Request: fold
Amino acid sequence: MRLRFNEIQNDLEANMGFFALLHIKPVRSTLLLACLACTFTVRGQAPPDSLATPAKLFSLQPAVSFDKTRFWAMTGTGTAIYGGLSAALGKSWYQDYPLTSFHTFNDWNEWNQMDKAGHLFSTWTACNYVFEGARWTGMKRRNAMWTSVGVGLGIMTTIETMDGFSEQWGFSFGDMCFNLTGASVFAAQEMAWKAQRIQFKVSGIRPGYPQEPLYSTDGTLITSLDERAAGLYGTNFFNVLLKDYNALTVWASVNVHSFVKQTDTKFPKWLNLAFGYGAGNLYGGTQNRWETEDGVVFELDPVRYPRHRQYYLSLDVDWSRIPTKRRWVKVALKALNFLKMPAPAFELNTLGKARFHYLHW
Reply:
């Protein structure tokens, strides 16, 4: 997976206005989603189509039947954003690398597949927010579902296609496989339950990277793992949350209440059980060895810094199920729903260790 900027696709993807803020291909798209969530994910369920009444363009209330004005407003906004961000992406990211003929790139072994988990998360999130925006226009559920799948996959496919023409990267079938998985999981839940009982979220806080001197293999240069991580991932909040593979955890957050007979349980509707995936000691795509522009090589001791995978079990909150009568509060909660709530967590990892975290971010 690659670290860089992002962008948006067409039609109803006005819902995704959050993508362009990120530098990591799969997850970067999500920040944008949350932003547009504030604009369009304000509804509850759209009323039956038979109750048609005129829809106000700037109302947060979803239209009760298909409203052309809202639809074209979203389409125009999405198209403008998509075009602008595509141009910005090409200029700010790809212009520094030579273009070449379309080619593929096998990045399956990079980053312990954390980037692949990010692709699943991003595509599912894109579909979810586009669906909500489509319902805001009064579009029927099935049409909204297929629209969201098409737009979500379109966004991620655009990024992959641009990669395919860059000498630095290439079109990744592995990434596309997880993009398709994210869209499929969204569509399957909509068709089966008319609800997203299983949601995908992220969490992360920058680890305390070692600051002790780290010498190059020839002893001519000194750095530290803190400096390496800062250069590789960044240090600000969003970079850490969405780029730092040592900090990032991708979660499948399951709403327990929706899977049991509601008359037989007092389990809170808003309380979820979350299953997370993370990684540790990742300082390079496939190995902890890197080379500076001057050709100086750094290599970590695999015994002291073993690359590993982490599996988590924790609790979470489905913010969209928090009872509130204020629509703007519902909007804000929905926009935050891509973030996993900090909570106690149990961890198993491939180092053969089990840990309990009093509070996992």
